[in-house]
Amino acid sequence: GQNIDQPTEMTATEGAIVQINCTYQTSGFNGLFWYQQHAGEAPTFLSYNVLDGLEEKGRFSSFLSRSKGYSYLLLKELQMKDSASYLCAVRTRSNDYKLSFGAGTTVTVRA
Amino acid sequence: DTEVTQTPKHLVMGMTNKKSLKCEQHMGHRAMYWYKQKAKKPPELMFVYSYEKLSINESVPSRFSPECPNSSLLNLHLHALQPEDSALYLCASSHLNQPQHFGDGTRLSIL
């Protein structure tokens, strides 16, 4: 199985930067995904890394190091609406359809 | 708004009732998924359909019965559910090897 770890909670100030780390242990890694989920709503896809390096999408960036089993999601210029749970999910080569999710990181943005 | 549509949004049913959850997508995705999500937990995969055939069943109890009538539709038939089955049921779809896109979910309560 997969072991995926991310912090439970993080708090930051509006306009600041927050980095959410995700570490994983898995065999046959085949991609890491980040989703945002507001309370009571569906997860929304944010970013996807298969190769090492940084993927930038506006205020959100995601980084992957396969050799370290490590990823982070960087949220810049935080806004109040960024308060949500952020889910790290890993896919393996053994099954292209199955995502294994971390427990999620709840980010609270304060004014 | 999401491109994966789920109905109903809310459902309350007794333990002896039979009901169905419906999911529809028109993005041409050939993989469709059912997830169960309890409060403050990540989504748990239940079933995967690939090209309208059941690809994954994550040892889900038989009181949950999936059906994929065509490439755009996915149903989840419910019968004799237990109170612990109360949860948010999420449908998702994707192209192979691409990010999954989630619907808004059906919030299910079992009395």
Architecture overview:
The complex is a heterodimer of chains A (about 110) and B (about 110). Chain A is mostly beta strands and about 110 residues long. Chain A has strands spanning about 5, 10-15, 20-25, 30-35, 45-50, 55, 60-65, 70-75, 85-90, 95-100, 105-110. In chain A, strands 2, 4, 5, 9, 10 and 11 form a six-stranded mixed β-sheet that branches. A five-stranded antiparallel β-sheet of chain A has the order 1-3-8-7-6, with no helix packed on it. In chain A, strand 7 (about 60-65) and strand 8 (about 70-75) form a beta hairpin. In chain B, strands 2, 4, 5, 6, 9, 10 and 11 form a seven-stranded mixed β-sheet that branches. In chain B, strands 1-3-8-7 form a four-stranded antiparallel β-sheet, with no helix packed on it. The mean pLDDT of chain B is about 95. Chain B has no helices and eleven strands. In chain B, strand 9 and strand 10 (about 100) form a beta hairpin. Classes of the chains: A mainly beta (about 110), B mainly beta (about 110).
